[in-house]
TrEMBL record:
It holds the Pfam family Pan_kinase. ATP binds at residues 7-14, 145. Catalyzes the phosphorylation of pantothenate (Pan), the first step in CoA biosynthesis. SUPFAM superfamilies: Actin-like ATPase domain. A monovalent cation. Ammonium or potassium. This is Type III pantothenate kinase.
Length: 272
């Protein structure tokens, strides 16, 4: 059975196509094709059309309509966009699974005070990471529109999602300074890369903004990692669109992953 995995975030719709569902949990990206569409970008209409054509071609190559698994944090607008794409590509033939946050999944327990209040992207990402690294304590960092730090603790009985932190994403931090101050320049995420190579104190406003926002992000990550590492071994997994900007400024061991939400959707599709 082929599967189409869709992660609808605040900034982009990301997708991955599995011609067959790989059962090996050691495979970091168990899909064969993937892509993304930026919401509201000038090229969005072209990307929507290209995506529909790609899905049709992939379905034709496998001679079957895929099972579709979707995690959506973009509200009704995100759901409507995905439904329109799927209808254009497959009519009403594709079976859809809109994933929701639950109190537990397999041996992973949701430790949120109100489990259903946990964002579905964080929950599904935790499912994917736990399947890939069973029995390990994990710090999952997703550097997207928001930067989220999520903790999974392992025990002999299974694992527990122990909550985490939510920060404004790197781009949001940079943008807030530019919008809400009279004389500070607008920067983007790529401007922060050079900030990792400089001295502790920047000698110009451009680099001071870049280094300051980067330090706020990486400081939260480092502090959380040190607290977890004091209890025992912990693996830090970094994903999201700004992951490369953060990776160069982190001193602890990290592992990069393209999209933990898609990995979690794959795990859920495979299990069923």
């Amino acid at each position: 059975m082929s599967a189409l995995l869709i992660d609808i975030g605040n900034t982009r719709l990301k997708w991955a196509w599995c011609a067959t569902l790989e059962a090996d949990p050691s495979v970091a990206q168990p899909w064969h094709f993937d892509g993304a569409i930026a919401h509201g970008a000038p090229q969005e209409a072209a990307e929507l059309g290209q995506t529909v054509e790609a899905w049709r071609a992939l379905a034709a190559a496998g001679a079957q309509v895929p099972e579709v698994w979707i995690a959506n944090v973009a509200g009704d607008a995100g759901a409507e966009r995905a439904n329109a794409l799927l209808k254009q590509a497959f009519g009403g033939a594709a079976p859809l699974e809109w994933v929701r946050t639950t109190a537990a999944y397999g041996d992973l327990v949701n430790g949120y005070r109100e489990p259903t209040q946990l964002g579905v992207d964080r929950w599904v990402g935790a499912i994917g990471a736990h399947r890939r690294y069973p029995g390990e304590t994990l710090l999952l960092v997703t550097a997207g529109t928001a930067t989220t730090l999520d903790i999974i603790t392992a025990s002999a009985d299974g694992a527990r999602f122990d909550g985490g932190l939510i920060l404004p994403g790197l781009a949001l931090m940079l943008g807030a300074l530019a919008r809400n101050t009279a004389q500070l320049p607008a920067l983007d995420v790529t401007d922060t890369v050079a900030a990792t190579r400089g001295a502790l104190g920047a000698d110009n406003t451009h680099d001071a903004i870049a280094a300051g926002c980067l330090a706020a992000q990486t400081g939260a990550i480092a502090q959380t990692w040190r607290a977890l590492a004091a209890r025992g071994p912990v693996r830090c997994v970094l994903s999201g669109g700004a992951r490369h900007a953060l990776a160069g400024a982190l001193a602890m061991p990290i592992e990069l992953h393209d999209n933990l939400v898609l990995l979690g959707l794959h795990a859920m599709a495979l299990r069923r």
